[in-house]
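**Protein record**
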Amino acid sequence: MNKRMLKELAEKYPDYVLQPYGSMMGRIGFEGVYSFADAFGGASLYIPHPRTLFTECVAQQVKEEYNGHNLRELCRKYDYCDKTIKAMLAR
């Protein structure tokens, strides 16, 4: 079955698309879900929360911004506790 036909069927019968992929279609569209399934179909996959997914990016930025005196400011800015910010700085 080709992609065009699958798209037509998914749009005609959206309640019958397997969950959570039907919900994903509502957010990222058929093309996004199809591309995701094409790339990762059959794999056992855990998708972390966005905050967890980008923690190391935040850690790098915290290291750039830390001046030795602005720990509390960084905690407020990035919404992390001081223990977590200190751990980021120690990496």
User: Anything to note?
Assistant: The helical segments are 3-12, 21-40, 50-53, 55-65, 71-78, 82-90. Residues 50-90 form a domain with the Arc Repressor Mutant, subunit A fold (CATH 1.10.10).
